Amino acid sequence: MVRLSKSCVLLSNSSACIMNSDSKYNLRGVSSSKEDVHSAIIGLDKGLFPNAFCKIYPDYFSGEPDYCSIVHADGAGSKSSLAYLYWKETGDLSVWKGIAQDAIVMNTDDLICAGSTGPFLFSSIINRNKHLIPAEVLSEIISGSAEFMQQMKEYGIEIHYMGGETADLGDVVKTITVDSTISCRMRRDHVVANNIQPDDVIIGFSSSGKAEYEKTYNSGIGSNGFTAARHDVLNHEYFSKYPETFDSTTAEDLIYSGSKKVSDIFAEAPLNTGKLLLSPTRTYLPVMKTILKKFYDCIHGIIHCSGGGQKKVMHYVDKLHIIKNNLFTAPPVFKLIQQESGAPWKEMFTVFNMGHRLEIYTEEKNAAAIIYIANNLGVDARIIGYCIADDKKKLTIESEFGTFEY
Questions:
Q1: Residues 111, 159: contact at Cβ < 8 Å?
Q2: Alpha carbons 180 and 160: distance in angstroms, whole number
C-alpha cells in the first residue's frame, strides 16, 4: 500500500480572513454544502442503490429486472450571469457555447460517477428575460449544445437532443438560466454503487490544462462556486453597470468586491480574467468511456468534486479516513480567487475543486492502467491519496497551502 509523502506545508497569511460557509457565502444567498436541499429530501426514497452518486430507479419502461434508469437535472448555475456580463462588455457571443457545455457536463459527469457513459437523452430548459437576451444568444446556446454532442460522438458517446423548453420569464428571471435534464438506461450490474474500501487509493483527474478533445486551455473552474468567484474577483464598477446580474437584496459591499475587470490579464494564465472564470466545464466522458469499459467491476467509488469541492466524498463514506496528500498544484484561477477574496484556503477546498474534479477509488494495482488511459487523452491523472479504516469518517487534505482536517 503506497503512503505518499506529505506535501510541503505553506501557511497562508490570509488564513485569518473571513470567508466561511456561515459568513460571506451565505450572506450572498447561497450555500456550498446545500444543507437546506439535503434537509428537504431526507425523507425521499433513495432508489435501488442508496449510496450511488445519482439516484437510480428500476427500468420502468421495459420492466427488465437486469436494467435500471437514471434521470438527472442540473445546469450552468450563476455562471450564466457572468457570461451575460462578459458578453455585454465585449460583444463576444462565443461564451454562450461554453454555458451550453456547462449545462450538459454538470449532468453527464454526475452520471459517469454512477457508471453510465450513455446513450443519453438530453432535454434543455432555458428561461430568459427577452428584453435583455436576444434570439442570437439563444441560437448560440442551442448550437453550442449540438456542437458539444457532435464532438462527444467522435469519441463513441451518444447524447441525443430531445428538445426542451425555452420560456420568456422576465418577471421571474433577471437575465437567463440554462439548465438541462439527462436520462439514461444501464445494466444494474454495471452500476458503481460507491462502496469505498480501506486501502483503496484515490486517483484524481486534473480539471485544468488542455485535453485532446478541448480546443483551448481550460482553467479548471467548472460550474461551482460562481456566486463567490465572480463577486470576489470582479470590479465594483459592475455593480452600477449590471444590476440585473445580482440579487438586489444582497449588501452592496458583497457585490463585485474585487479589483479585476473581465478584460484584465492574469499573468499566470493564457486567458483574460473573464475567460479564465468562464472556461467551459471539462467533461471526463471520453476518458471514462474507456475506463468503465475495462474496470467497471473493480472500481469501488467515483466522485464528482462539484458542489462541496474536495469534501464531496464525505457524503459517500462511513468509518473511513480519506487522506489526500498528493494533490495537483492549484491552477491559477483558484489562486486568483483566493488572492481577491482573502478566503481561508481551508474554505477554498470546500467551495472549489482546486485542481481535480473527478476521483476514482480502487485498488492500487489498477491505478497505472487507469492513469495511462487519461494521459492518452491529454488529461493529467495521478494517485492523490488513499483510504484507511477509522471509527468515524474523516478527511485530511495535505496541500501546498497547509494541512486541513474535516
A1: no
A2: 13
Q: Classify strands 394-399 and 320-324 as parallel, antiparallel or unpaired.
A: parallel
Please state the pTM of the whole predicted model: 0.91
Homologous superfamily (CATH) of 13-405 is: PurM-like C-terminal domain (3.90.650.10)
**266 and 276 Cβ atoms separated by less than 8 Å:** yes
Question: Which residues, at least 6 apart from 152, have a Cβ–Cβ distance to it below 8 Å?
Answer: 158, 159, 283, 285, 286
Close Cβ partners of 147 (under 8 Å, ≥ 6 residues apart): 97
Can you name the residues that pair with 167 across neighbouring β-strands? Answer: 127
* Exposed/middle/buried for residue 217 (C-beta within 10 Å: 0-12, 13-18, 19+): middle
Residues 6+ apart with CB under 8 A from 237: 256, 261
CA angle 233, 237, 238 (to 5 degrees): 70
Partners of 126 in the β-ladder = 166, 178
**Strands in 67-226 per DSSP E:** 67-75, 120-128, 159-168, 176-187, 201-206
- Contact between 362 and 299 under an 8 Å Cβ cutoff? The reply is yes
Q: Give the whole-angstrom CA distance, residue 323 versus residue 387.
A: 6
Of 78, 105, 359, 349, the C-alpha closest to 230 is 78
Does residue 400 register a pLDDT over 60? yes
Q: What is the pLDDT of residue 8?
A: 32
Tell me how far CA of residue 20 lies from CA of 8, 233, 398, in angstroms: 24, 17, 19
Percent of the chain with pLDDT over 70: 90
Lateral strand order in the sheet of 120-128: 57-58, 67-75, 176-187, 120-128, 159-168
Q: Would you say 307 and 370 are in contact if contact means Cβ atoms under 8 Å apart?
A: no
d(CA 249, CA 262): 24
Residue type, 113: C
The SS3 call for residue 309 is: helix
User: pLDDT exceeding 90 applies to what percent of the chain?
Assistant: 87
261 burial type by CB count under 10 A (0-12 exposed, 13-18 middle, 19+ buried): middle
Mean pLDDT of 6-26: 41
